[in-house]
Input
Amino acid sequence: MSDTVLSQFTQAVKEEKKSTGRKFKVGIIGTGWIAEAHIESYLQMDDVEIVAAADLIPGKAEKFMKDYGVEGVHFYPSHKEMLDNEELDAVSVCTYNMTHAECTIYALKKGVNVLLEKPMCVTTEEAVEIMKAEKESGKLLSIGFQPRGDENMKMIKKIVESGVLGKIYYIQTGGGRRRGVPNSTFIEQKTAGIGAMGDIGCYSLDMVLNAIGYPKPLTVSGYTSAFFGNNPKYNNPADAARFDVEDFAAAFVRLEGGIILDFRIAWAMHPDTPGDTIIFGTEGALRIPSTECWNGSTGGPMKIYHDVAGERVETIIPEIKPDKNDKGLFYKKVRSFLDAIAEGGEAPVPSKEILYNQAIIDHIVKSSKLGKEIEVVIPEI
Ligand SMILES: NC(=O)c1ccc[n+]([C@@H]2O[C@H](COP(=O)([O-])OP(=O)(O)OC[C@H]3O[C@@H](n4cnc5c(N)ncnc54)[C@H](O)[C@@H]3O)[C@@H](O)[C@H]2O)c1
Output
């Protein structure tokens, strides 16, 4: 891996900083489930003032703020009215996937820094448009992959970068749940655009791609299916009737640098797991018990398989537990975003990395529709 590739991806998830004395004027776009994690983090910070909230559903943002006891907030019926009428330093885009791009682009064009929930969006083209707006605005955009702040996830990257595995040539990753199809807005094209890949698959991809420095994807042979979410035998009939995204996806991806990525993710399946994550290198392999990778945990101690003094040995990497003062991954995600704005630093989770994550997902969808391997095409930014 070249230095330039590595330097692009310097992790900037930092420890909590002392208050700078100024308050960030923050707005929340979309006051659904994940917005709770954002506001619970913001409310612990002395340098944040929640000034505005928007939701398409009438009364939802008002109820949300009332439940949290936050007063003096201006409410709006969509991101547009909010951004047209407020002077904000930052917004959390907590909408469903299908409106990630429009909300983020509008905010950046208004000169507002954005913490955008994962997945970045739905298509490669949307990701590119987001990045164009980011570039033109000069504002900070960070994508909400909170597992980046997890010490075990950081350890995976440290192990790869230490060279103990040698040159990485093959990775299998993914995971999922035996039965875990969500409901809400996650299961419809019109709101989510993508299913299991956007919900949990993007985390598995980020876990390994971040560790190896996010090489560019070159080709994808992808497969998606839905045999559980839309089946009243496995899902409640009302949800099964509206389910129209994938509940399983698999892909064989060629990455720059001669690395093969073998990926599979399931919201539902008959086995308990489609297998651990394993990173194969010329000097060793790392096994990550990661069926529950979506929440940024490793599901047990990781193991390095390698030869020492001519003997085949296994080195167990103890799990790192958060200490008692740890405020959690969501807090770190929000804090590192605000600190990067204050310091003029790089986004903790930059779009230039997640572009490749999104492109893989999008090309899995496209390849599956075509029934063949396709080249990854990413328009110029
Ligand atoms: N980081 C995590 O751990 C995590 C966990 C869950 C969900 N998410 C992500 O968060 C996003 C939201 O998930 P959720 O479960 O909160 O969904 P949700 O459906 O509960 O909430 C989304 C809200 O956004 C509103 N909305 C949509 N477009 C809008 C617009 N243009 N302006 C204003 N409001 C708008 C909707 O009305 C809805 O109330 C998804 O992209 C999901 O992938 C992340």
About this structure: Confidence is low (pLDDT under 50) at residues 1-16.
